[in-house]
Design goal:
By secondary structure, the protein is an alpha/beta fold. It has three domains: 69 residues; 159 residues, Rossmann fold, CATH 3.40.50.300; 106 residues. It has 16 helices and twelve strands. The strands form four sheets. A five-stranded parallel sheet has the order 5-8-11-4-12. Strands 1-3-2 form a three-stranded antiparallel sheet. A hairpin with a 2-residue loop joins strand 2 and strand 3. Helix 11 packs across helix 12 and helix 12 packs across helix 15. The termini are far apart.
């Protein structure tokens, strides 16, 4: 190797470099192809290199070719810009490894789920019993059954409103399944996340889960079996066990007792699994309210909608009571519910006419039943037709006055 070629060779240093790196090319150019220990020490001292630097970087076994003789032929080169130093460089701090565990569960923080108080609500029936159970904060599943529109769901909601306790209401249908109830994977902000269902939310919040229209569900709601035991539920999709907090409870409402509808009035209801029904501690049967209680309910609705007529409220309740007695005797196939009375009161607050409100709200029934209901009301409230006639005459008079005014303006 020629001297100028050797000057370009950078030795592979075993120790940390320092700022005297530029002296090594000069040292190599001044040495012969094979050099002795004394040769390299003498030349190195002339260039200002210490004995330790030369011994540690050049006088090593890798370059030894004989006793006291060395050569740098075939040495791998390193860049000249690399600086060398006798002092070891400070060790860099190792950055902590970030947790790469994927969080598959989405954050589903929800606002307050306390129901709003219903103006004009009347406490009746099983209200005090259910309220006592909810206040106890015990896990005590309840099954509330009764005909449509008699206030089952409203009762549960108002109990929780009075106690300022959160309530999650889930309307059950034939399509309701484990994914709807316990949760499933959803697209959240461009990522696939497991979103907990209402059952899991209720368990984690320690609030009440209301399974509304429970008898419309299929065997898919059997996923609630462990939940109805109060022991928690396993989310197999994310391998997580959920335990209920203190205060969690389940209340179910239905139009049947879970045995289906024989008369076909509640089409779509199903026969629920016996093991499912057995997990409810008690079943409460809720009838329609008495005449006295329903009168208070109707007056409360009138107060809510801003048009109170005590006489009309009394007539409506008497009319509904007669229809229900006839229904339960088997003479007719339809019934007037408390909810239907509320619809009539709301319609009355809009149009201000008793018969018109009733006609519009009973039009959902077949023609024969509708006419029978209307005829019965005219017998209960003999002044209704007269009031309707006076209202129509007043309306016609108002229209005539408007037409006369339009004509005068036109002539002018």
């Amino acid at each position: 190797m020629k001297n100028d070629e050797r000057g370009e060779v950078m030795i592979n240093l075993r120790y940390q470099p320092d700022k005297q790196v530029g002296l090594y090319p000069q040292l190599l150019q001044s040495l012969p192809k094979v050099f002795s220990r004394d040769d390299v020490l003498g030349k190195g001292r002339e260039l200002g290199l210490s004995f330790r630097q030369i011994r540690k970087n050049i006088l090593i076994d890798d370059y030894r070719v004989g006793k006291g003789m060395y050569s740098i032929e075939g040495v791998e080169s390193v860049p000249q810009e690399v600086s060398i130093s006798d002092d070891p460089s400070p060790i860099e701090k190792v950055k902590p490894v970030e947790n790469t565990e994927v969080n598959l569960i989405a954050n589903t923080s929800m606002e307050s789920l306390i129901p709003e108080k219903f103006e004009g609500f009347v406490e009746w029936g099983h209200y005090s019993d259910v309220k006592r159970i909810v206040r106890s904060r015990m896990f005590y599943p309840i099954f509330v059954t009764g005909l449509s529109g008699n206030g089952k769901t409203l009762m549960v909601e108002q109990i929780h409103a009075s106690l300022s306790k959160e309530l999650i209401r889930v309307n059950i249908t034939i399509e309701t399944d484990e994914d709807d109830l316990l949760g499933g994977f959803r697209l959240v902000n461009g990522e696939t996340k497991f979103v907990p269902g209402p059952v899991v939310e209720a368990m984690e919040k320690g609030c009440t889960l209301l399974l509304d229209e429970c008898d419309l569900g299929s065997n898919k709601i059997m996923c609630l079996q462990p939940v109805l035991e109060g022991k928690g539920v396993y989310l197999k999709k994310v391998n997580k066990w959920i335990l209920p907090k203190k205060g969690f409870n389940v209340i179910a409402t239905a139009n049947t007792k879970g045995k289906g509808s024989d008369d076909g009035r509640f089409i779509g209801t199903n026969v629920l699994n016996e093991a499912f029904l057995e997990r409810f501690a008690i079943t409460l049967e809720q009838p329609y309210p008495s005449v006295q209680v329903e009168t208070k309910i109707v007056l409360g609705s009138m107060l809510k909608y801003g048009k109170t007529d005590k006489e009309f409220a009394s007539k409506l309740v008497d009319w509904a009571d007669v229809i229900r007695k006839t229904f339960f005797s088997g003479a007719i196939d339809e019934i007037i519910s408390t909810r239907r009375l509320d619809h009539i009161v709301k319609t009355f607050s809009i149009f201000g006419n008793r018969m018109k409100a009733i006609q519009m709200c009973v039009a959902r029934f077949d023609d024969e039943t509708r006419d029978a209901f209307l005829d019965l009301y005219t017998k209960v409230d003999s002044g209704a037709i007269q009031n309707e006639t006076e209202s129509e005459e007043s309306s016609e008079s108002t229209e005539d006055n408007v037409n006369d005014t339009d004509e005068e303006v036109s002539n002018y």
